[in-house]
Amino acid sequence: LRRALDPRVQADPQRLPPGQVLTEKWPVLHYGRVPAYELEGWRLRVFGEVERELSLSYGELLALPSKEVLCDIHCVTTWSRFDNHFLGVPLAQLAELAGVRPGVQFVEFHCFGGFTTSVPVEFALAEDALLTYQHDGQPLAAEHGYPVRALLPRKYFWKSAKWVEGVEFRSRDELGFVGAQRVQQQRRSLARGALLVAGPGGGVKLSFSGSRMEFRP
What we know:
Elements: H1 7-11, E1 21-22, E2 43-48, E3 54-57, H2 58-63, E4 67-74, E5 79-90, H3 91-98, E6 106-111, E7 116-120, H4 121-124, E8 130-135, E9 138-139, E10 149-151, E11 164-170, H5 177-191, E12 195-198, E13 204-208, E14 211-215
Pfam families: Oxidored_molyb
Protein name: Oxidoreductase, molybdopterin binding protein
InterPro entries: OxRdtase_Mopterin-bd_dom, OxRdtase_Mopterin-bd_sf
C-alpha cells in the first residue's frame, strides 16, 4: 500500500517509520526450516538469574492469565503491518513467577535450531511484551512461530523471536545468533587477506585492499 493512500497513515504520518512499506500481508522470514512440534513433549524453560526455574507445558502456559496487545509491527527488511492483535502471557508475569534476582540486565530467548537473541530487560518486562500464542484470533501459524513466539512491539520485529523454547534472565549480555554470525563473517574477511595494524594509542586498524577502518578502544 502506498503511504499517501492509507487513511491510517494520513491520520498519523509518524505511525509508519521512514523507509517502511505498509502491507496487509504478514511476510515470512526466518532462519532454517520450520519445525513441526509435538505439543505433548514441548516445554518452555524459564531460567538463569531466578529463584525458581520453571518448566511449563503448552497447556500450563495457556492456563496462566493472558493479555491481549494491539500493536503495529515493523521489520528491518522495510515492511510494516498495522493493527495486529496478539494474545499471550506477559513476560513480566513469568519473571514474577520465577522470582528474577536483582541485577538482571538482559533477557535472552532460546529458540528452535539454536537461534538466540537478547534484549535489555526493560523491553522484555514492558507492559506490551508477551510470549504470544495467538494472532488475530487464531493460533500462530507454524511459519510465524507456533506454538510460542516473543512479542516485543518496542523493537524491530526480528527481536520477536519465533519458536521460543527458553527464556533466560541474565546479568550480562552475550552475542546472540546474529551477532555470532557477524563475528564469523569478520573472521572470514580477515582470513581472506585483511591486515591488522596497530594504531596510535592502542587502537586497531583493518586494511582491506587499500581501504582502512579504525576501531577505537
